[in-house]
Design brief:
heterodimer, A: 782 residues, alpha/beta, 6-stranded parallel sheet, globular, B: 57 residues, alpha+beta, flat
């Protein structure tokens, strides 16, 4: 870059002043507020940004965080050659949540080609020392990855091996900046030499099982499937970056320095212009046009949706400006074609950019009627799966950027995240089986609520964030891979989602557990040097062999009946999110009673209420025992943040359990629908009469209660119509709840606050209930 | 927020499909953030008094 066509850097201050940094922070916050951004990405780069020194970098970071706290999340990074990186920098980066990317071109020979001091000495040892510092446990959470600029003189596989040996979380390969006026050097007879170089690495990486995230390859894979690129080097997505120079002037992407002198300049400055004004600059607007902004040759190209014309700067030619294919066009075409031909089915099907979850018209009709089969409930579950993934990722993203989180917690968080990403690459089904646990969402929601709170409201409990490591450990165990996880426990008790709870006696106070898994299926738990146990993992769970249980291991247990199996969840600390307190771990006699009651309840549902059966099979994953109420009333609950779970105290009669399951699962289904769609006007704060409660209810409460009562009414109807000893007692309940439900349906339809889809939904409920009004119930009619 | 009309064959939601997108990428790009506000919103509890059912069974 120092030798590029644009030499504007010579006129810039070496270091950004505190005043300029404060203005930059103000402008970024101003923009984030105006556009209600949830996150901004800021990269500190150069030149060489470490020349600013740790104090100034800390001041810049503090200015950014001070301005953005309470507005949006800040993803703060620094890209450096690493030569000056030492503990004083890392401590500042750790304090301010600045993650570090290091530029290195491969092994010593490769790096020495271009990265020498002015006196010719190699910088390689200093760079490796910097990387080793980031690999150390203390700073591992700061390690963002490696950036490698391609040089065809280097052996590609040797470069890849050298980079991989540094255990980076991710690697990115960059083509040297070039234009048609100053094209890249290529060997004679090799018109796509850069593609050949990258292909050698891709093939090795692919055959290795893709052990690390390589941003360029992943972006090619994504764009060939219609998804958004993760790098501005390829793809049709509009550019969304602006550079702030050390003097406070705004510029376009640094890569434009390769085009011509003055190419990145905008003429705008922090002191006089906001970012919206910069966004109106013709050079920025030109990079928002997608396919329309490309030259005719590119628009006709079969791989244009993937390459997007390549990096904007690489299209430049005197005379025609940027209306040209990339100077790397033959390389992009060859590489994209090669990677596209190697696409893996495991991650293939994705129909296009911005794909969203949807229900079919038949799904909506089924659910509105009060039911919903395997397909409809399955599609609700798929949307919940996306939400859980967004929640888990956001917990990590926000926690790792939250300066209030302590260093040790943050380091474990980063290790857990790395393990999750590793498991996801190696065994995505194993990860899915863990994060599909209903209370993962309850946990994530709790974390995000506290992470979003102002500093004055305290900070997230470290113990909450440890659950991410528990998820990662459980996923690693289920994946059967070589892995290691560390989890801090408050008292020697550790819950592993979907597997069970480890409760190790010992001294009071916090203790750290190390979990080591192997591809052979062995799992070792160690609490320091004081306690150690070994287990074998199988799809059924963990079997401890040394020392033998039963005291310290409480495995997850299941309730089964013909055609259904659910987890009886009595260990997860986040299950206690219902309005009734969760019961403690069930004893063996209690488990037997649960199993008996569940089997009888299920047989009743299957025989008398078959329309609900398929939906329950598809969506009910977990039952949480609640503590019995003090007055002997039956209590049950569904939590919006725990799709797939129903909580209930065990009723005396299994038929009541059937009723409670039906009733609560209605809330589960409707909650999932409301997660996807607006059925009513959320700004309507009126309260409405609900026939089943003394207190008036908000519209959402009335809708939920009415929907639940559709199933309640059908339960009593079935018991009334089936005859036998229960019919006489069921009749009055049927008549009472039928009338109450019909009344509340009309209240909803008359509210004037249902959306068109909400009206359709409630009309579907009415279509189910109305015919029941014709059933004669002696003593209750007229 | 999308509200489908009665004539639509499919009811598209605004919940992005992230099932096949790596977690790291979701975190890096802040995907799904639009749906998070809805997910994290407070909702009224829906407790129903069911004690009246008991005597009938």
């Amino acid at each position: 870059m120092y030798h590029a066509a644009d030499q504007g850097w010579l006129a810039q201050p070496t270091v950004m002043s505190i005043q300029t940094a404060a203005w930059a922070a103000y402008r970024i916050a101003e923009h984030a507020k105006a556009h209600e951004l949830r996150q901004v990405h800021v990269v500190l780069h150069g030149g060489e940004p470490l020349l600013a020194g740790p104090v100034r970098l800390g001041q810049i970071a503090a200015a950014l965080r001070d301005n953005l706290t309470g507005t949006c999340a800040l993803d703060l990074r620094i890209h450096t050659n690493g030569v000056l990186l030492d503990e004083s920098f890392c401590d500042v980066f750790s304090t301010h949540g600045i993650r570090v990317g290091i530029s290195i071109d491969g092994d010593r020979a490769a790096n020495d080609r271009h990265r020498r001091y002015s006196n010719g000495r190699s910088s390689y040892d200093r760079v490796i020392r910097a990387i080793d510092l980031l690999r150390a446990e203390k700073y591992r959470h700061l390690y963002l990855g490696l950036l490698c600029t391609i040089d065809l003189a280097n052996d590609p596989v040797a470069v890849y091996d050298a980079l991989l040996a540094s255990e980076p979380p991710r690697i990115d390969f960059l083509a040297p900046h070039a234009t048609w006026d100053s094209p890249p050097r290529r060997p004679a007879g090799a018109p796509a030499a850069y593609a050949d170089w990258l292909t050698a690495i891709f093939d090795r990486w692919d055959s290795d099982g893709r052990p690390v995230d390589i941003r360029l390859f992943d972006s090619v894979i994504r764009t060939t499937r219609g998804q958004r690129s993760r790098t501005e080097a390829i793809g049709l997505a509009p550019s969304d970056l602006v550079v702030i120079e050390t003097d406070g002037s705004y510029e376009q992407a640094d890569s434009l320095k390769a085009a011509y002198d003055g190419a990145p300049a905008t003429g705008y400055h922090l002191l006089r212009h906001c970012l919206d004004e910069v966004g109106g600059h013709p050079g920025i607007l030109a990079r928002q046009a997608g396919l329309r902004g490309l030259c005719e040759e590119c628009r006709r190209c079969p791989v244009v949706a993937s390459c997007g014309g390549g990096l904007y700067a690489h299209r430049y030619r005197s005379g025609t400006g940027f209306a040209n294919p990339s100077v790397y066009c033959p390389d992009l075409k060859k590489l994209i074609t090669h990677i596209g031909s190697q696409a893996r089915p495991a991650t293939a099907p994705h129909s296009g950019p911005g794909r969203v979850h949807a229900l079919t018209a038949a799904d909506v009709a089924e659910l509105a009627a009060g039911y919903g089969g395997r397909g409809a409930v399955g599609r609700l579950g798929q949307a919940q799966r996306s939400m859980r993934r967004a929640l888990v990722a956001t917990v990590y993203q926000r926690a790792s950027a939250d300066a209030r989180i302590g260093r040790a917690t943050r380091e474990r968080l980063t290790s857990a995240w790395d393990l999750l990403a590793h498991v996801e690459r190696q065994a995505p089904d194993a990860l899915e089986s863990v994060i599909s646990h209903p209370y993962v969402r309850a946990w994530a929601a709790r974390c995000l609520t506290s992470l979003g709170a102002p500093a004055s409201d305290g900070h997230p409990h470290g113990s909450d964030l440890e659950y991410l490591a528990a998820i990662a450990a459980a996923a690693g165990i289920r994946a059967g891979i070589n892995a290691r996880a560390e989890i801090a426990t408050a008292d020697g008790t550790l819950y592993l989602p979907s597997l069970g709870r480890l409760a190790v006696p010992g001294p009071d106070g916090p203790r750290e557990c190390t979990i080591t898994t192997t591809a052979a299926g062995t799992v070792t738990f160690s609490f320091g040097a004081g306690w150690r146990a070994q287990a074998l993992a199988s799809p059924a769970g963990l079997r401890f062999c040394e020392p033998p249980p039963p005291d310290y291991w409480q495995p997850a247990r299941r309730l089964t009946a013909p055609g259904i199996s659910v987890v009886l969840e009595d260990a997860d600390p986040y299950r206690d999110c219902h309005q009734w307190p969760a019961a403690p771990r069930c004893s063996s006699p209690e488990l037997i009673r649960w199993q008996h009651s569940f089997r009888v309840a299920w047989s009743l549902i299957a025989a008398q209420l078959p329309a609900y059966r398929e939906g329950l099979v598809a969506g009910l994953a977990t039952i949480v025992p609640l503590a019995p109420s003090a007055d002997g009333r039956d209590v049950s609950s569904a939590a919006r943040q725990a799709f797939g779970a129903v909580a209930t105290a065990l009723p005396a009669d299994p038929a009541m359990l059937a009723l409670l399951l039906l009733h609560e699962f209605q809330h589960v289904k409707l909650g999932a629908v409301l997660d996807m769609y607006d059925l009513f006007d959320r700004t309507d704060s009126r309260l409405f009469r609900a026939p089943w409660r003394e207190d008036p209810r908000p519209l959402e409460g009335l809708l939920q209660g009415t929907y639940a009562h559709v199933a309640v009414v059908e339960f009593w109807r079935a018991r009334y119509l089936v005859g036998g000893p229960h019919a006489a007692a069921a009749g009055p309940h049927y008549a009472r709840w039928r009338a109450a439900t019909a009344e509340s349906i009309e209240t909803l339809l008359g509210s004037g606050s249902l959306t068109p889809m909400g009206q359709q939904f409630v009309r579907g409920m009415r279509a189910t209930v109305t015919p029941w009004l014709a059933d004669r119930v002696p003593g209750m009619d007229g | 927020m999308k509200v489908a009309d009665d004539q639509a064959l499919d009811f598209a939601s605004d919940v992005a499909d992230l099932c096949l997108i790596p977690l790291a990428e979701i975190a890096e790009a802040g995907m799904g953030a639009d749906a998070l506000a809805r997910i994290l919103a407070e909702h009224p509890s829906h407790h129903l008094p069911v004690s009246a059912f008991q005597s009938a069974i």
